[in-house]
Fold this protein.
Amino acid sequence: MKTISIINLKGGVAKTLTAVSMAHILAVFHNKHVLIVDNDKQGNTSKAFRVHSYDTKTIADVLTARRIDPHEAILHTGYEKIDVMPANMNLIRANLEVMMDSTRPQQTRLRAALDAVAGEYDFCIIDNAPDINISTINALVASDDVIIPIKIDEYAFDGLAELKEQIENTRDDLNPRLRLAGCLITCFQRTEADKQGEEWLKAKPEYPVFDTHIRYSEKVTESTFAKIPIVEYSRRSGAAIDYVAFVHEYLERGKK
């Protein structure tokens, strides 16, 4: 199972859209079994797949309960090949509880849970909160690849160096297989600011950038209200076309 963390320390950069779209495209277009882990207390990925609830176990239980079977916190979706480990506001409590529990390892709990189900999936995609807390560190420790969605604006690159440093520290100390797969430009519009921002980022060798960028589309907002992945909601929209191309590019890069 290849595990991918979607993360940026900024909000509003299309992290959840990217996680949901990748999962949907891998499952529907590439016939892959996908587990998507909602690692954000807002639970937007859980809501997107209509499994948000306070009546079922979530990632909070996986991080805090002893000897839990991770299957208890995995829910089926309306898509045959997509399952979700959901999240809700209980993740706030779970982060605090993990930090206060020094009786067992804190950073490897999610990895242990995912290892237990790895044989059932081809890919695991983790949608992370815009923060570095113990649950996001757990995600990095459990991941093979990191993808950083970036929306070009005045503050686009704030926190990028700090996030890269956290990735490198995690690789050095806890997860030698972790790599920054690349930055993904999202919400792209053909303005001079967006073009210059993309060119600036591509000129930085320390930040690999995917060739595909995701164009801005009003259909994206509509799809979130409908709780339907963008490629299913509006196949001909620029964002849908670009996400299909991006997933293809990611898979092709992985073969090299």
Notes: The CA atoms of residues 226 and 233 lie 8 Å apart.
